[in-house]
Amino acid sequence: MLFLSRDDIRDLVTLGQAVAVLQAALARYSDQTVLMPDARRLSLRIPGNAAEAGDTFCFSKVCHLAFAGIVGFRVVVAGPDPSRSTRLVVLSEARAGTPLALIAEHDLYQMRVGALAAVAVRHLARRQSGLTVGLVGTGPLARVILAAVREVVRPGRVLVASRRPESRRTFVELAQAGDQAPVSAVDEVADAVGPADIVVTATTASTPILRPEWIKPGALVYLVGAGCEADIGVYRRAAKLVVSDWRECLAREDVARMVQRGELSETDVHARLHEIVQGAKRGRGDDEEVILVRAPGTVFHDIALAHHVYRQAIEAGRGRHLDG
Predict the structure, then answer these.
(1) pLDDT in tens, 298-310
(2) How many whole angstroms from its chain centre is CA 114?
(3) b/e map of 97-119 (b: 16 or more CB within 10 Å)?
(4) Is 270:289 a contact under the CB 8 Å cutoff?
(5) Is the pTM of this model over 0.85?
(6) Whole-angstrom Cα distance, residue 17 to residue 13?
(7) Beta strands in 218-323, from DSSP E residues, in sequence order
(8) 47-104, pLDDT tens digit by residue?
(9) Which residues of 8-41 are buried (b: 16+ CB within 10 A; e: fewer)?
């Protein structure tokens, strides 16, 4: 078995390559070539005590990439301090069960989140130059998402909102580089969303932070957070709802609540993202159409990217063999 560290990952795949890998994987997706169990995860929540900042979440997911002949397991143990979390992918041959690789997934996970957003932007955003990107959230995922979006479009400007002024200032300093479009911090979420052609929310919000009247005609809205960034009003503002996987969406707080209240159902979904990539379903109809994407990543995306990194490692002679 080959062990690939975080340093190996950084040398084996770029963000642009990650976008291309997910694009290609989505183009090959079908219910016959990608097998995931109906019970999407084995999960455990360990409550924190008074001296700790939060709970610990543990889960594992599995996927069979039939077109690649591999099985992948993703294992996560995430406590209050993200830098100390366990994130691993295990790859094995599907038929013989032979172990192939153990991969440290911290940076790969962030790449996957950003790359999936970039694929959605490539296929669903308005096709014109100088688009305005509105970002809500300034954490590590937001930075990677912006970098990935810049791989597929050249924004005219980027507007950033967050809860804390200092986080916005830091984000602008890190995101502004070279001849890239200007990145500006704004005080209110509405100021980032209102002018935006591409809206991305990447927050830990537990209550809605978007309002439907802020969203301009023709905008693409991409919801990343696992909590509750939008209510049914935002969903109804959209002419089309695109998801990565409906069953995965049901595990998200906002979707689960709307389904329980009878406000939303699978019949409201226009397409899954792979159907857009494959051309099986139409993407954008016109420049006035608002499209909402709720695309929590699935283990399929994680394993597809991890498998690419494994193949690159074999070619480059990288990694450390654990079985002698």
Answers:
(1) 999 999 999 999 9
(2) 6
(3) eeebbbbbbbbbbbbbbbbbbbb
(4) no
(5) yes
(6) 6
(7) 220-223, 240-243, 271-272, 291-294, 320-321
(8) 887 666 678 989 999 999 999 999 999 999 988 887 789 999 999 999 999 999 999 9
(9) bbeebbebebbbbbbbebbebbeeeebebeeebb
